[in-house]
User: Which sequence fits this backbone?
């Protein structure tokens, strides 16, 4: 059994989601190789070589791999797919974009967004936005899998795998990168933060998110939002936690002014501890919250900031 | 330009689904079914392109049981020109759907296939990308803005860290994200008119596609339930519990 994990990274550093995919790969058994495809991706390849349990890192360098667009990733992965029984990548927007192309060309079903590995051919994945869990057994010779990063432990460092440079064939069909607008923030990334504080429609407007940000800065937390807050234009869409946004599972999730629509719960209900602050005591968010505070958020959130200050934050 | 829009009939997004006690699936008896919301966005985007004079014809295609025809009628009532219904009562996985669609594309030669990024029933998020690979076409997934650009399309995509803009040459696959547009409601006169629009009936066998599933469903279960916790009286009590009881700060 040989397992290929396709790394998620930004060339300069390895994304933590890759560590979760390696854990899922280990559960399949066999040697684990990690593919780092990019441009000037040496640092990411080096980080991958230190992952615990990784036997080898394959490093492909090319201009057309800089943004890891789907067509280029398809061509590259297919060029090495023969040697592997299973190919995994994190179910980030990057992995979700290119992975099904690889499955289709290999004529296998993709097993999307797995949350558990039962055996080398049996996996658990959420359907209906996490309202049901489906256990599937794959009859395909090669398994092509995307891994939900929040449900697997992240492997630590401790390995010292060799890094092998491989060729990056030019893709046939191709999309062209034009530009990107990435949200700049000194806060931790939403998907991997240990603490997340999110605002909903109850925030009223985008300026009011400032009170949440102050708490986030004290706790070194990421800031998220419900779909209602994003649709209302309070914050950009990449803040969105939920079925159609990001799925998060931090140690502590603080929902502020969020009613708790099914669509939002699907994105955060696996958090270890959930806190809800809402003035409507009937809000569904309280049914999943470990600690609920029925209060006006405009009083409670600044008070939270002050109380955190008293305990050393 | 001709646009092909695949649409899927799914459990309405407002329905809270229930897992069957025998764990064979979710209960679909007497449940309201509708067009997958991401597919509605795809139909809307195609119609807007037609209204702008960028597209001439919109063909809606659905693969599924007899009732999938209603979903095609919905697309026709919104403004699609004609439909193709590939009838089957079997479960069709994304790979098989992509294979059938690839055959439809061969027959219809559209310059653009626009489809939802995922269906809200099985949440696979794979069909569009698979179709692109089978056809050897470029793809622009998770689109939040689409613009005709020369002989191709300029597409803004929703990615984890923000937004990315790419160009794809035509023919291409675009998959829709939530914020691309707000789909219109069909007006009564358009619903009446849609009844006279043609729908071609086909089967997977007509296209010579083997739709046998590759994934065997062993069981479908309820997700682990989360119990409601306690209500705290004050912010001070909340901070105390987080620090001393839960130990998360």
Assistant:
């Amino acid at each position: 059994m040989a397992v290929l994990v396709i790394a998620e990274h930004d060339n300069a550093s390895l994304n933590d989601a890759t560590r979760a995919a390696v854990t899922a790969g280990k559960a399949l058994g066999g040697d684990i190789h990690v593919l780092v495809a990019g441009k000037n991706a040496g640092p990411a390849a080096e980080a991958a070589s230190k992952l615990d349990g990784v036997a080898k890192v394959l490093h492909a360098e090319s201009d057309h791999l800089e943004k890891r667009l789907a067509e280029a990733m398809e061509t590259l992965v297919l060029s090495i797919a023969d040697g592997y029984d299973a190919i995994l990548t994190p179910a980030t927007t990057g992995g979700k974009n290119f992975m099904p192309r690889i499955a289709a060309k290999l004529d296998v079903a993709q097993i999307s967004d797995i949350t558990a590995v039962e055996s080398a051919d049996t996996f658990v994945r959420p359907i209906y936005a996490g309202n049901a869990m489906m256990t599937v057994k794959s009859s395909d010779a090669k398994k092509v899998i995307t891994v939900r990063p929040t449900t697997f432990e992240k492997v630590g460092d401790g390995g010292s795998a060799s890094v092998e440079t491989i060729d990056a064939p030019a893709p046939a069909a191709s999309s062209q990168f034009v530009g990107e607008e990435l949200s700049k923030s000194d806060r931790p990334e939403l998907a991997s933060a240990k603490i997340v504080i999110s605002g909903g429609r109850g925030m009223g407007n985008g300026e009011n998110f400032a009170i949440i940000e102050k708490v986030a800065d004290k706790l070194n937390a990421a800031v998220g939002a419900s779909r209602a807050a994003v649709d209302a234009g309070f914050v950009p869409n990449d803040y969105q936690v939920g079925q159609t946004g990001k799925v998060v599972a931090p140690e502590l999730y603080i929902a502020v002014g969020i009613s708790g629509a099914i669509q939002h719960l699907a994105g955060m209900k696996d958090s270890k501890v959930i806190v809800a602050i809402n003035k409507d005591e009937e809000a569904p968010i309280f049914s999943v919250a470990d600690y609920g505070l029925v209060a006006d958020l405009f009083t409670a959130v600044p008070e939270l900031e002050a109380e955190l200050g008293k305990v050393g934050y | 330009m001709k646009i092909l829009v695949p649409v899927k009939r799914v459990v309405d997004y407002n329905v809270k689904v229930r897992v069957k006690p025998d764990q064979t699936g979710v209960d679909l008896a007497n449940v309201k079914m509708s067009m997958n919301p991401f597919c509605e966005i795809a139909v809307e985007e195609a119609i807007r392109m037609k209204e702008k004079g960028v597209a001439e014809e919109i063909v809606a295609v659905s693969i599924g049981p007899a009732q999938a025809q209603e979903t095609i009628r919905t697309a026709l009532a919104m403004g699609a020109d004609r439909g193709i219904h590939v009838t089957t009562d079997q479960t069709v996985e994304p790979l098989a759907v992509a294979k059938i669609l690839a055959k439809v594309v061969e027959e219809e030669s559209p310059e653009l296939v626009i489809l939802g990024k995922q269906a809200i029933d099985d949440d696979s998020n794979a069909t569009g990308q698979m179709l692109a690979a089978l056809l050897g076409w470029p793809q622009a997934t998770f689109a939040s803005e689409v613009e005709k650009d020369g002989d191709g399309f300029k597409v803004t995509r929703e990615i984890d860290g923000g937004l990315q803009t790419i160009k794809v040459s035509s023919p291409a696959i675009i998959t829709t994200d939530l914020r691309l547009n707000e789909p219109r409601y069909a007006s009564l006169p358009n619903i009446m008119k849609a009844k006279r629009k043609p729908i071609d009936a086909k089967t997977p066998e007509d296209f010579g596609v083997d739709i046998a599933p590759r994934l065997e469903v062993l069981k479908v279960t309820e997700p682990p339930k989360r119990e409601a916790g306690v209500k705290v009286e004050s912010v001070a009590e909340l901070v105390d519990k987080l620090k001393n009881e839960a130990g998360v700060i």
